[in-house]
Amino acid sequence: MSEIIELARRARVASYALAEASRATKDAALHAMAAALRANTDTIVEANAVDVAAAREAGTPESTVDRLALNPSRVDGMAAGLEQLAGLADPIGEVVRGYTLPNGLELRQVRVPFGVVGIIYEARPNVTADAAGICLKSGNAVLLRGSSSAAASNEAIIAVLRDAAESTGLPADVVQGVPTDRAAVKELMQARGLVDVLIPRGGAGLIQTVVSESSVPVIETGVGNCHVYIDADADLDLGLEILLNSKTQRPSVCNAAESLLVHSAVADEFLARALPALAQAGVTVHGDPKVVAAGKGVVEATEEDFGTEYNSLDLSAAVVDSLEDAVQHIRRYSSGHTDAIITRSQAAARRFTTAVDSAAVVVNASTRFTDGGEFGFGAEIGISTQKLHARGPMGLPEMTSTKYVVTGEGQIRT
Fold first, then answer.
1. Is the pTM of this model over 0.70?
2. For 211-226, how does the pLDDT look when each residue is reduced to its tens digit (9 = 90+)?
3. C-alpha angle 340/341/344, rounded to 5°?
4. 75, 262, 358, 377: which could join 230 in a potential S-S bond, CB 3.0 to 4.6 Å?
5. What residue ranges define each of the domains in the chain, with the CATH number in brackets?
């Protein structure tokens, strides 16, 4: 028996115990995990330093190093996310719908765990704790395959989480790490029947590989080519503040803005203010000819720029002649993650939110709010840009399936 199959079998056994665990037991495990992360902060940060040093030695871009790096504050944030999950309602057993049929049968559709969830993700070791916590609260055993660049960090975090879960009476195998070699990943993607669902979280290449090569059902998370559109009727002060927050607050994450669209009616005034502010924040703007002409230091944009998720202090920008042109641009280049409009016009906001088909459409707020924690879901598994089952930030309900419970009094079908 291969190592991956053995891990999956152990996860399956652990999932049976977890599916029957009470909310009190699961919440106790989450609190124990949070406490253990804090108690082992030094060990986790030391392990992470090994990964960060190796990444820098390999010439990894600083935006990627930032996603990889942990410090005491980020470890505390991981612990706080687990505690927040403990405070949320348990989705398992929730009645989605229920009614009595004309023949007297009582029908209830209830939420149940998937069983065993495999998560394949890149760089960010905080995902290890987030994913383990959400899977545990939703009753799922989890197989965590992080990237080799975060191997030491993930190993340390998983060891802490396993010990904490076991201390509360749950099997340690509700959380397991998967080897990072390609052969192991391929086998995980083919473990249909032992693994119920796979979730890839990372760059476009990783996601496409898992979607194309997996025989296990996949929930596809998406890259974030997010837009901020400054409408003709925008409050320009508000628009500039939102643009800067969307782009610069944390540029390496998927809900950071990657593209700016400005209505031609306000382009001269807005760009005269926005381009210097972006430059001062260290942002390189890749603009169409109108944006290039509007200010110094703008790089001429290529077709590829408008479809790029930079994950860095780079921003594509274009001037559009109408809201409809903005919608058409977004339909062509957006990844369907998050797109925002800045406007005082209710009609424009309604048109934008109806016409733009993204997982999150934002009116007069930063794209950075598309996040499970910000939405009140607790830590998230990822942000789905597909349309089946789950879309947008995936919290606890999205990590469940349903089954029908049918209760009768001797009814037979004639």
1. yes
2. 899 999 999 887 899 9
3. 145
4. 262
5. 3-221+387-407 (3.40.605.10), 226-373 (3.40.309.10)
